[in-house]
């Protein structure tokens, strides 16, 4: 536990209460957020613990059980409140400075002769819980089950991701839920007074004996329960788990609150709860944009057809070098088979020549690894082998949705200075990008065209609010050749032709909205060059940010995301199948500065089904007193690149 809280300064505010056998059967403990608007109350009633949560004077969650040893009667020995306030810098992310400011209630308790603690943190935008059981040799036998209930007020509705290549689910009325149904985290609840609650876990990385939890849903309540602990690196014991004297640290169970659903997406709380960076040297970890070959295979341009060969890969690398794109990714087809300790590429792909060419051009290469087909390169050998080829990252497919595997593989990748992008139903492992920042992104979503299926504008918007709560996403936005894709002129076209419904302005905006440490650009270089004026938005956009805001948000309907790098802002809006206009106030800009803005937007005749590739680019000037009316076609989008006008750059304080 000392390792988890090092470098954090605590200020003891006071001891609230000492519990003795003579006290009443029910005792309450309270902790407030630093701004006083959130109050977490815990009640010890007949040796069982429950909590309730209020925000701005209104109940958000009613009495809900929380326990680690549910079959054992607990006694609370002492409680104290500590203040935490620090600033830390991530290696990359949505914010360049993170403010970790909260109050923590520490309950010291015992079940029988077993000592343990419950940590309860209250931030201005939510609360979190974690149990810590120190090593206690000889004190064995207590049943372990990490339970957290969530009981919102009546008439709440909820949404949840679906694993694999599926659209997120919801909305569902909680009071009409089928008893015993399941919801994947992160789950979002909307209360009857239009407030939003996000339910997720953070720092599963540090909870080395736990697997990720889902939610058991019954009418009026949700319940997260973990009773699976590892007895070894890969062996899992699945029921009737008993404490065996070792240290046990649970994941943080996190509850976010917001007036808008977009408030949850840019919360710093999940990362603040994660363990600090474990790496001494992070200079090799570089976020960036990445070209990708998979959706381009079979594309024809000027008599050339893209395939898995040396010439095609060199064309990608040339384009990346020309437009300052940091990476190129070769996907699964670069592997034909594996012999002991070696991967065999296709006959007309000279991977050594490609690596040398990329190095000459200043472009880094990432390589896919399919664990099912290349098992001869086991997990001890694959990372040094890829590093030996000259790769700077690995896209890891079919690696199992398991916490222990994700933790171990990310450590091995870091030891070989490889970025890692997990695909094919990965473990969410929220917060790992703070602890091991080489965990650069993951496909914890339904990526565009996955399993040859496209998804709708509204389903993208659901994932922008749900899946994004888990951390950085690889969603493969940014298709510019929408008409050709829909006609099937690629090897991996949509299963149903004319079903990939979007607009090119929306595709550009989605790249900004869906954050990941690697920003994948999935279309052919020729398609980007055909629309070079629109591609400018993607070219100029960085992959890591100083600040991120959600300005407009409505679940499955629309979003406006604004991200800042230095003194430049990139703003992207996406809307559902109905289209419409969003008002975007620019009050986030500096005072007394005039800005040049480039608008990349739907044209008057754009439509996400009938006229997908129509767009317009125009320029103007704005100040912080302006409000932009972003008019979007059905299924459309709107982008702005805002930077100080040449004569008006801020001079600093």
UniProtKB/TrEMBL annotation:
Q: Give the keywords, sorted.
A: Hydrolase, Signal
Describe the location of the Glycosyl-hydrolase 97 catalytic domain by residue ranges. 301-443
Decide whether keyword Hydrolase is in the record: yes
Asked if Hydrolase is a keyword of the record, the answer is yes
Q: Which GO terms describe its molecular function?
A: hydrolase activity
Per UniProt, residues of the Glycosyl-hydrolase 97 C-terminal oligomerisation domain are 544-642
**Pfam families documented for this protein:** GH97_C (PF14509), GH97_N (PF14508), Glyco_hydro_97 (PF10566)
User: Which residue ranges does the record assign to the Glycosyl-hydrolase 97 N-terminal domain?
Assistant: 31-276
- Its domain of life reads Bacteria
Q: Secretion signal: which residues?
A: 1-24
Q: PANTHER family of this UniProt entry?
A: GLUCAN 1,4-ALPHA-GLUCOSIDASE SUSB-RELATED
Q: What is this protein called?
A: Glycoside hydrolase family 97 catalytic domain-containing protein
Q: Please name the source species.
A: Pontiella agarivorans
């Amino acid at each position: 536990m000392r390792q988890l809280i090092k470098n954090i300064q605590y200020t003891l505010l006071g001891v609230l209460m000492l519990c003795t056998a003579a006290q009443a059967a029910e005792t309450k403990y309270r902790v407030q957020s630093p701004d006083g608007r959130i109050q977490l109350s815990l009640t010890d009633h007949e040796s069982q613990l429950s909590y309730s949560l209020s925000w701005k004077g209104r109940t958000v969650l009613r009495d809900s059980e929380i326990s680690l040893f549910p079959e054992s009667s607990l006694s609370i020995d002492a409680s104290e409140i500590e203040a935490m306030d620090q600033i830390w810098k991530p290696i990359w992310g949505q914010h360049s400075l993170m403010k970790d400011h909260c109050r923590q209630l520490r309950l010291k308790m015992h079940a029988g002769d077993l000592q343990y603690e419950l940590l309860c943190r209250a931030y201005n935008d939510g609360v979190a819980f974690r149990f810590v059981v120190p090593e206690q040799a000889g004190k064995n036998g207590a049943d372990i089950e990490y339970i957290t209930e969530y009981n919102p007020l009546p008439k709440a509705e909820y949404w949840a991701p679906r694993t694999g290549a599926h659209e997120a689910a919801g909305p569902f009325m909680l009071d009409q839920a089928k008893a015993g149904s399941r919801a994947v985290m992160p789950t979002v609840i909307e209360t009857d007074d239009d407030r939003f609650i996000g339910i997720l876990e953070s720092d599963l990385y540090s909870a080395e004996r736990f697997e990720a939890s889902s939610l058991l849903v019954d009418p009026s309540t949700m319940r997260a329960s973990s009773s699976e602990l590892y007895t070894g690196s890969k062996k899992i014991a699945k029921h009737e788990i008993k404490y065996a004297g070792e240290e046990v640290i649970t994941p943080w169970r996190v509850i976010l609150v917001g007036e808008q659903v977009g408030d949850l997406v840019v919360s710093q709380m999940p990362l603040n709860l994660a363990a600090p960076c474990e790496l001494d040297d992070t200079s090799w970890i570089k976020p960036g944009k990445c070209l990708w070959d998979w959706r381009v295979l079979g594309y024809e341009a000027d008599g050339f057809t893209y395939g898995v060969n040396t010439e095609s890969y060199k064309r990608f690398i040339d384009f990346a070098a020309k437009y300052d794109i940091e990476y190129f990714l070769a996907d699964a087809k670069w592997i034909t088979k594996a012999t002991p300790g070696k991967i065999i590429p296709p006959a007309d792909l000279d991977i050594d020549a490609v690596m040398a060419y990329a190095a000459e051009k200043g472009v880094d290469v990432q390589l896919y690894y399919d664990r099912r087909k290349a098992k001869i390169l086991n997990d001890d050998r694959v990372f040094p082998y890829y590093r030996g080829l000259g790769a700077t990252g690995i896209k890891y497919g079919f690696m199992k949705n398991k916490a222990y595997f994700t933790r171990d593989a990310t450590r091995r990748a870091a030891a070989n200075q490889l970025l890692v992008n997990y695909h094919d139903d990965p473990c969410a492992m929220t917060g790992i990008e703070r602890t091991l920042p080489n965990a650069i992104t993951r496909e914890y979503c339904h990526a565009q065209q996955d399993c040859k299926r496209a998804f709708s504008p509204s389903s993208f918007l659901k994932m922008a609010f749900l899946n994004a709560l888990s951390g950085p996403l690889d969603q493969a936005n940014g298709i510019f050749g929408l008409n050709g894709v829909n006609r099937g002129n690629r090897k991996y076209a949509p299963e149903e032709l004319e079903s990939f419904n979007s607009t090119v302005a929306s595709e550009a905006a989605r790249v900004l909205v869906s954050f990941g440490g690697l920003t994948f650009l999935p279309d052919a270089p020729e398609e980007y060059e055909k629309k070079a004026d629109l591609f400018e938005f993607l070219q100029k956009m960085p992959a890591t940010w100083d600040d991120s805001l959600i300005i407009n948000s409505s679940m499955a309907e629309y979003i406006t995301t604004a991200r800042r790098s230095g003194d430049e802002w990139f703003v992207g809006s996406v809307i559902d199948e109905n289209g419409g206009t969003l008002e975007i106030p620019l009050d986030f800009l500096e005072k007394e500065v005039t800005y040049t803005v480039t608008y990349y937007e739907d044209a008057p005749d754009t439509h996400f089904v009938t006229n997908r590739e129509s767009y317009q680019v125009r320029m103007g000037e704005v100040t912080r007193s302006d409000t932009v009316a972003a008019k979007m076609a059905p299924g459309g989008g709107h982008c702005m690149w805002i930077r100080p006008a040449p004569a008006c750059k801020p001079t600093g304080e």
